[in-house]
Specification:
Layout lengths: L2 H8 L7 H5 L6 E10 L2 E11 L4 E5 L6 H8 L7 E6 L10 E4 L11 H11 L4 H14 L15 H14 L4 E5 L7 H18 L2 E5 L3 H7 L2 E5 L6 E6 L8 H4 L3 H36 L2
Parallel strand pairs: 3-7, 3-8, 5-6, 6-7
Antiparallel strand pairs: 1-2, 1-4, 8-9
Helix pairs in contact: 4-5, 4-6, 5-6, 6-7, 8-10
The chain binds adenosine-5'-diphosphate and magnesium ion.
Length: about 290
Amino acid sequence: MSQSATNLRALGEPAKGADRRAQPVRPAIRIADLQKTFGKLVAIDRVSIDIEPGEFFVIVGPSGCGKTTLLRILAGLETATAGSIEIDTPAGSDRPANSMVFQGESIFPWMTVWNNAAYGLRMRDAPAAVIKERVGHYLDATGLTRFAGYYPHQLSGGMKQRVSIARAFANDPEILLMDEPFSALDAQNKVLLQEELLRIWGEQTKTVVFITHSVDEAVFLGDRILVMTAQPGRVKSLVPVPLPRPRNIIELQKAPEFGELVHSIWSGLRDEVQRAREQENTEVAHDTKEKTP
Ligand SMILES: Nc1ncnc2c1ncn2[C@@H]1O[C@H](COP(=O)(O)OP(=O)(O)O)[C@@H](O)[C@H]1O
Ligand SMILES: [Mg+2]
Protein backbone atom coordinates (compact mmCIF):
# COMPACT_ATOMS: atom_id res chain seq x y z
CA MET A 1 0.00 0.00 0.00
CA SER A 2 1.35 3.42 -0.88
CA GLN A 3 2.16 6.04 1.72
CA SER A 4 -0.79 8.19 0.67
CA ALA A 5 -3.19 5.26 0.93
CA THR A 6 -1.93 4.55 4.47
CA ASN A 7 -2.51 8.17 5.39
CA LEU A 8 -6.00 8.01 3.99
CA ARG A 9 -6.91 5.06 6.20
CA ALA A 10 -5.53 6.98 9.17
CA LEU A 11 -7.84 9.85 8.26
CA GLY A 12 -10.84 7.59 8.68
CA GLU A 13 -11.24 6.25 5.16
CA PRO A 14 -13.54 3.21 5.43
CA ALA A 15 -11.94 -0.21 5.08
CA LYS A 16 -12.49 -1.91 1.76
CA GLY A 17 -14.54 -5.03 1.20
CA ALA A 18 -17.88 -6.65 1.77
CA ASP A 19 -18.20 -6.01 5.52
CA ARG A 20 -17.92 -2.25 4.91
CA ARG A 21 -21.10 -2.48 2.86
CA ALA A 22 -22.93 -4.80 5.25
CA GLN A 23 -22.70 -2.42 8.20
CA PRO A 24 -25.00 0.57 8.51
CA VAL A 25 -22.82 3.60 7.77
CA ARG A 26 -23.39 7.30 7.76
CA PRO A 27 -23.95 8.30 4.18
CA ALA A 28 -21.11 10.16 2.48
CA ILE A 29 -23.70 12.26 0.69
CA ARG A 30 -27.28 12.85 1.78
CA ILE A 31 -29.52 14.54 -0.76
CA ALA A 32 -32.88 15.40 0.80
CA ASP A 33 -35.88 16.70 -1.10
CA LEU A 34 -33.65 18.64 -3.45
CA GLN A 35 -35.20 21.04 -5.87
CA LYS A 36 -33.62 23.37 -8.41
CA THR A 37 -35.47 25.81 -10.58
CA PHE A 38 -34.18 28.23 -13.21
CA GLY A 39 -36.93 30.83 -13.47
CA LYS A 40 -40.04 28.85 -14.37
CA LEU A 41 -38.11 25.78 -15.39
CA VAL A 42 -38.02 23.01 -12.79
CA ALA A 43 -34.70 21.29 -13.48
CA ILE A 44 -34.63 18.98 -10.42
CA ASP A 45 -37.70 18.03 -8.46
CA ARG A 46 -37.71 16.50 -4.97
CA VAL A 47 -34.73 14.21 -5.29
CA SER A 48 -33.73 12.31 -2.14
CA ILE A 49 -30.81 9.88 -2.14
CA ASP A 50 -28.21 8.62 0.32
CA ILE A 51 -24.84 7.72 -1.18
CA GLU A 52 -22.60 5.46 0.92
CA PRO A 53 -18.94 6.13 1.65
CA GLY A 54 -16.84 4.47 -1.04
CA GLU A 55 -19.82 3.85 -3.29
CA PHE A 56 -19.47 4.15 -7.05
CA PHE A 57 -22.74 5.89 -7.78
CA VAL A 58 -23.79 6.41 -11.39
CA ILE A 59 -26.45 8.73 -12.78
CA VAL A 60 -28.14 8.17 -16.13
CA GLY A 61 -31.05 10.08 -17.64
CA PRO A 62 -32.10 11.79 -20.84
CA SER A 63 -30.36 14.94 -21.97
CA GLY A 64 -31.62 18.01 -20.09
CA CYS A 65 -32.94 16.06 -17.08
CA GLY A 66 -30.71 17.87 -14.60
CA LYS A 67 -27.71 15.53 -14.19
CA THR A 68 -25.07 18.23 -14.56
CA THR A 69 -27.08 20.59 -12.39
CA LEU A 70 -27.22 17.96 -9.63
CA LEU A 71 -23.46 17.43 -9.83
CA ARG A 72 -22.79 21.17 -9.81
CA ILE A 73 -24.90 21.50 -6.67
CA LEU A 74 -22.85 18.71 -5.04
CA ALA A 75 -19.67 20.55 -6.08
CA GLY A 76 -20.94 23.79 -4.54
CA LEU A 77 -20.91 25.50 -7.96
CA GLU A 78 -24.68 25.97 -7.89
CA THR A 79 -27.12 26.43 -5.01
CA ALA A 80 -30.27 24.40 -4.39
CA THR A 81 -33.63 26.18 -4.60
CA ALA A 82 -35.10 23.96 -1.86
CA GLY A 83 -34.10 20.87 0.10
CA SER A 84 -30.58 20.12 1.23
CA ILE A 85 -27.38 18.26 0.58
CA GLU A 86 -25.02 17.08 3.28
CA ILE A 87 -21.52 15.86 2.60
CA ASP A 88 -19.93 13.95 5.45
CA THR A 89 -16.38 15.13 6.02
CA PRO A 90 -14.34 13.31 8.68
CA ALA A 91 -13.45 15.63 11.57
CA GLY A 92 -10.01 17.18 11.22
CA SER A 93 -9.65 16.20 7.58
CA ASP A 94 -7.74 18.72 5.49
CA ARG A 95 -8.78 17.07 2.24
CA PRO A 96 -10.91 19.03 -0.21
CA ALA A 97 -14.58 18.06 -0.18
CA ASN A 98 -14.66 17.28 -3.88
CA SER A 99 -12.87 17.34 -7.21
CA MET A 100 -14.74 17.48 -10.47
CA VAL A 101 -13.78 15.91 -13.79
CA PHE A 102 -15.72 17.64 -16.54
CA GLN A 103 -16.87 16.48 -19.92
CA GLY A 104 -14.33 17.18 -22.66
CA GLU A 105 -11.05 18.96 -22.15
CA SER A 106 -10.54 20.67 -18.85
CA ILE A 107 -6.78 20.79 -18.41
CA PHE A 108 -4.69 23.94 -18.76
CA PRO A 109 -3.05 24.12 -22.21
CA TRP A 110 -0.13 26.21 -20.92
CA MET A 111 0.88 23.74 -18.20
CA THR A 112 2.81 20.51 -18.54
CA VAL A 113 1.18 17.20 -17.64
CA TRP A 114 3.00 17.24 -14.30
CA ASN A 115 1.91 20.78 -13.44
CA ASN A 116 -1.67 20.08 -14.49
CA ALA A 117 -1.77 17.01 -12.23
CA ALA A 118 -0.19 18.97 -9.37
CA TYR A 119 -2.54 21.95 -9.74
CA GLY A 120 -5.07 21.13 -7.01
CA LEU A 121 -2.39 20.22 -4.48
CA ARG A 122 -0.40 23.40 -5.20
CA MET A 123 -3.55 25.50 -4.78
CA ARG A 124 -3.88 23.97 -1.32
CA ASP A 125 -0.21 24.66 -0.49
CA ALA A 126 0.52 20.97 -0.02
CA PRO A 127 4.14 20.24 1.00
CA ALA A 128 6.49 19.62 -1.94
CA ALA A 129 7.18 16.03 -0.81
CA VAL A 130 3.44 15.22 -0.79
CA ILE A 131 3.02 16.74 -4.26
CA LYS A 132 5.94 14.74 -5.58
CA GLU A 133 4.65 11.48 -4.10
CA ARG A 134 0.99 11.90 -5.08
CA VAL A 135 1.49 13.29 -8.56
CA GLY A 136 4.16 10.65 -9.24
CA HIS A 137 1.80 7.94 -8.03
CA TYR A 138 -1.17 8.98 -10.15
CA LEU A 139 0.81 9.76 -13.30
CA ASP A 140 2.14 6.25 -12.93
CA ALA A 141 -1.35 4.81 -12.33
CA THR A 142 -2.67 6.55 -15.46
CA GLY A 143 0.35 5.58 -17.56
CA LEU A 144 1.56 9.15 -18.01
CA THR A 145 4.94 9.14 -16.25
CA ARG A 146 6.80 9.26 -19.56
CA PHE A 147 4.77 12.30 -20.62
CA ALA A 148 5.17 14.36 -17.45
CA GLY A 149 7.01 17.15 -19.30
CA TYR A 150 4.64 17.26 -22.29
CA TYR A 151 2.07 19.96 -22.96
CA PRO A 152 -1.59 19.11 -23.70
CA HIS A 153 -1.28 19.91 -27.43
CA GLN A 154 1.27 17.09 -27.67
CA LEU A 155 -1.22 14.55 -26.27
CA SER A 156 -4.16 12.56 -27.65
CA GLY A 157 -7.70 13.15 -26.34
CA GLY A 158 -7.54 10.01 -24.21
CA MET A 159 -4.25 11.10 -22.64
CA LYS A 160 -5.65 14.53 -21.80
CA GLN A 161 -8.59 12.88 -20.11
CA ARG A 162 -6.15 10.74 -18.13
CA VAL A 163 -4.41 13.92 -16.98
CA SER A 164 -7.78 15.19 -15.66
CA ILE A 165 -8.27 11.93 -13.80
CA ALA A 166 -4.73 11.98 -12.39
CA ARG A 167 -5.27 15.55 -11.22
CA ALA A 168 -8.59 14.71 -9.55
CA PHE A 169 -7.17 11.70 -7.71
CA ALA A 170 -3.90 13.46 -6.75
CA ASN A 171 -6.00 16.20 -5.19
CA ASP A 172 -7.32 13.48 -2.86
CA PRO A 173 -10.86 14.77 -2.42
CA GLU A 174 -13.48 13.19 -0.18
CA ILE A 175 -15.68 12.78 -3.23
CA LEU A 176 -14.92 12.54 -6.91
CA LEU A 177 -17.55 14.05 -9.20
CA MET A 178 -17.35 13.03 -12.86
CA ASP A 179 -19.58 14.47 -15.58
CA GLU A 180 -19.50 12.26 -18.69
CA PRO A 181 -15.72 12.19 -18.56
CA PHE A 182 -15.26 9.61 -21.31
CA SER A 183 -18.03 10.60 -23.70
CA ALA A 184 -15.68 12.21 -26.25
CA LEU A 185 -13.34 9.22 -26.46
CA ASP A 186 -13.15 6.45 -29.00
CA ALA A 187 -14.36 3.00 -27.93
CA GLN A 188 -10.90 1.47 -27.32
CA ASN A 189 -9.58 4.31 -25.22
CA LYS A 190 -12.84 4.40 -23.32
CA VAL A 191 -12.53 0.78 -22.19
CA LEU A 192 -8.93 1.30 -21.10
CA LEU A 193 -9.81 4.39 -19.11
CA GLN A 194 -12.87 2.78 -17.53
CA GLU A 195 -10.65 -0.07 -16.35
CA GLU A 196 -8.01 2.36 -15.10
CA LEU A 197 -10.61 4.33 -13.22
CA LEU A 198 -11.96 1.16 -11.58
CA ARG A 199 -8.46 0.08 -10.62
CA ILE A 200 -7.57 3.43 -9.05
CA TRP A 201 -10.94 3.63 -7.32
CA GLY A 202 -10.38 0.07 -5.99
CA GLU A 203 -7.07 1.19 -4.51
CA GLN A 204 -8.65 4.04 -2.59
CA THR A 205 -12.35 3.30 -2.29
CA LYS A 206 -13.24 6.91 -2.80
CA THR A 207 -16.88 7.92 -3.14
CA VAL A 208 -17.55 8.59 -6.82
CA VAL A 209 -20.59 10.21 -8.42
CA PHE A 210 -20.37 9.56 -12.14
CA ILE A 211 -22.70 10.81 -14.89
CA THR A 212 -22.93 8.99 -18.18
CA HIS A 213 -25.34 8.70 -21.08
CA SER A 214 -24.17 5.15 -21.72
CA VAL A 215 -26.12 2.43 -19.94
CA ASP A 216 -23.31 -0.06 -20.64
CA GLU A 217 -20.83 2.24 -18.95
CA ALA A 218 -23.16 2.70 -15.99
CA VAL A 219 -23.36 -1.07 -15.46
CA PHE A 220 -19.62 -1.65 -16.01
CA LEU A 221 -18.68 0.88 -13.40
CA GLY A 222 -21.44 1.33 -10.88
CA ASP A 223 -22.43 -0.10 -7.52
CA ARG A 224 -25.79 1.56 -7.97
CA ILE A 225 -27.45 3.44 -10.80
CA LEU A 226 -29.86 6.33 -10.48
CA VAL A 227 -32.17 6.52 -13.48
CA MET A 228 -33.64 10.02 -13.74
CA THR A 229 -36.88 11.02 -15.43
CA ALA A 230 -37.10 13.54 -18.26
CA GLN A 231 -37.51 17.14 -17.09
CA PRO A 232 -38.29 17.84 -14.32
CA GLY A 233 -35.55 15.48 -13.17
CA ARG A 234 -36.84 13.08 -10.54
CA VAL A 235 -35.74 9.67 -9.29
CA LYS A 236 -37.21 7.13 -11.68
CA SER A 237 -35.42 4.16 -10.16
CA LEU A 238 -32.35 3.21 -8.14
CA VAL A 239 -30.84 0.03 -9.52
CA PRO A 240 -28.19 -1.96 -7.60
CA VAL A 241 -25.48 -3.60 -9.72
CA PRO A 242 -24.69 -6.91 -8.02
CA LEU A 243 -21.86 -7.84 -10.43
CA PRO A 244 -18.71 -8.97 -8.61
CA ARG A 245 -15.50 -6.93 -8.57
CA PRO A 246 -12.87 -6.63 -9.84
CA ARG A 247 -14.68 -6.31 -13.17
CA ASN A 248 -13.16 -7.10 -16.50
CA ILE A 249 -15.10 -4.96 -18.93
CA ILE A 250 -14.49 -7.13 -21.99
CA GLU A 251 -15.47 -10.33 -20.15
CA LEU A 252 -18.46 -8.65 -18.56
CA GLN A 253 -19.96 -7.85 -21.96
CA LYS A 254 -20.39 -11.59 -22.54
CA ALA A 255 -22.08 -12.27 -19.20
CA PRO A 256 -25.88 -12.83 -19.35
CA GLU A 257 -26.38 -10.93 -16.07
CA PHE A 258 -24.76 -7.90 -17.68
CA GLY A 259 -27.06 -8.02 -20.70
CA GLU A 260 -30.14 -8.45 -18.50
CA LEU A 261 -29.25 -5.44 -16.36
CA VAL A 262 -28.52 -3.23 -19.36
CA HIS A 263 -31.80 -4.32 -20.93
CA SER A 264 -33.89 -3.62 -17.85
CA ILE A 265 -32.32 -0.17 -17.29
CA TRP A 266 -32.81 0.68 -20.95
CA SER A 267 -36.48 -0.26 -20.89
CA GLY A 268 -37.05 2.27 -18.09
CA LEU A 269 -34.88 4.90 -19.70
CA ARG A 270 -36.37 4.61 -23.18
CA ASP A 271 -39.70 6.16 -22.12
CA GLU A 272 -37.87 9.08 -20.54
CA VAL A 273 -35.66 9.69 -23.58
CA GLN A 274 -38.80 9.62 -25.71
CA ARG A 275 -40.51 12.09 -23.39
CA ALA A 276 -37.44 14.40 -23.43
CA ARG A 277 -37.56 14.36 -27.25
CA GLU A 278 -41.23 15.27 -27.27
CA GLN A 279 -40.50 18.14 -24.87
CA GLU A 280 -37.75 19.38 -27.20
CA ASN A 281 -40.08 19.19 -30.20
CA THR A 282 -42.78 21.14 -28.36
CA GLU A 283 -40.24 23.81 -27.41
CA VAL A 284 -39.01 24.10 -30.99
CA ALA A 285 -42.59 24.35 -32.31
CA HIS A 286 -43.33 26.99 -29.68
CA ASP A 287 -40.19 29.02 -30.57
CA THR A 288 -40.95 28.87 -34.30
CA LYS A 289 -44.50 30.07 -33.70
CA GLU A 290 -43.31 32.98 -31.58
CA LYS A 291 -40.74 33.99 -34.20
CA THR A 292 -43.21 33.86 -37.13
CA PRO A 293 -44.53 37.38 -37.79
N1 LIG B 1 -27.65 28.22 -15.52
C1 LIG B 1 -28.78 27.83 -16.09
N2 LIG B 1 -29.75 28.72 -16.40
C2 LIG B 1 -30.92 28.34 -16.96
N3 LIG B 1 -31.23 27.06 -17.26
C3 LIG B 1 -30.31 26.13 -16.98
C4 LIG B 1 -29.05 26.45 -16.39
N4 LIG B 1 -28.33 25.30 -16.23
C5 LIG B 1 -29.12 24.32 -16.70
N5 LIG B 1 -30.29 24.80 -17.15
C6 LIG B 1 -31.41 24.00 -17.69
O1 LIG B 1 -31.74 23.01 -16.75
C7 LIG B 1 -32.04 21.78 -17.39
C8 LIG B 1 -31.09 20.70 -16.90
O2 LIG B 1 -29.80 20.95 -17.44
P1 LIG B 1 -28.56 19.99 -17.17
O3 LIG B 1 -28.40 19.80 -15.71
O4 LIG B 1 -27.40 20.55 -17.91
O5 LIG B 1 -29.06 18.64 -17.85
P2 LIG B 1 -28.25 17.30 -18.23
O6 LIG B 1 -26.87 17.43 -17.69
O7 LIG B 1 -29.04 16.19 -17.64
O8 LIG B 1 -28.27 17.24 -19.74
C9 LIG B 1 -31.94 22.06 -18.88
O9 LIG B 1 -33.24 22.38 -19.37
C10 LIG B 1 -31.04 23.27 -18.97
O10 LIG B 1 -31.31 24.02 -20.12
MG1 LIG C 1 -24.96 17.35 -18.63
